[in-house]
User: Fold this.
Amino acid sequence: MPLRAELGIDLGTVNVLVYVRGKGIVLQEPSVVAQAIKTGEVLAVGEEARALLGRSPDTIQVRRPLRDGVIAEFNVTRQMLKHFIDAAVGSGFLARFIKPVVMITVPFGVTQVERQAVRDAALDAGAWKAYLIPEPFAGAIGAGLPIHTPGGHMVIDLGGGTSEAAVLSTYGVVAAHAVRVGGIRMDEAIISYVRRKYSLVIGQPSAEEAKIRIGAAMLAEDDPVYRMEVQGRDQATGLPRSVEIATEDIVEALEEPLSSIVGMVKSVLEQTPPELASDIIDRGMTLIGGGALLRNIDRLLTQETGVPVYVADAPMACVAVGAGKALSRRRTLMRTLPEM
Assistant:
């Protein structure tokens, strides 16, 4: 166990996960911050702040400082990161004087300015050194794919703000594509659908709950249909009302965002050299990220591409675990990922 803590941080639009070498995942919190509007003081971070979404008074602003996987508000992100790093490292004597080394994930294809913003935020938040790694690359390591070998390995990362697909071989990215469609866009699609079909205005937490509890990417003949009640504001009267929605509603609502994800996966497969494409057909594609938990998403992608798709063990943790494990391989990785 090194004296200086080594952290892998999955800095997501919806959730932040922190992996500590020797301990595993020590923190999983929503990437939400509550601030006093008048003073700018941070009042709550993570789960405490998320509880205020849609329920806060006019004097408190609740926000996600990351949008589409990149920093939208630097100072708020820095304070949030500091809170999470301090929580992961602890407040002991050594933690106060020996700053940690961190490996932070960023979406594939972000600009140099966006990369530098993440690095600066980590250093300002208390990191001794901050390295960056593309999310699908970290996720492949966390999922246990042998990306050090010359064979083709394809990973699909369905996050909160972005979805990415990449073909990896010999510690390098052969083909990759990302779309700014993820869990938040799916929630927005459910909100729009319920408003259009039932004339009911619901909030993002209700849409997310429906997606998790009864949602699916597609319905097969043998699939059960689940139902739940959602509460909101009647669009015509403005009064509180509730309606019952079913799995079919969620499937229909998610058609558009899922179509974008399918198109992204097909785009990467089209860019893949024939030899590596053959490997992917034999080995299948690995699905990671919170979106991998949507029922039947693997079946939908298999049906649309003709390539087997498998959900990784603990898909939400893969990116943070891979970022942490990548720290011990950083000298090797810096040869193939020069912008680390």
Summary: The chain has three domains: 6-137+320-336, 144-181+256-316, 183-255. The two ends are 23 Å apart (CA to CA).
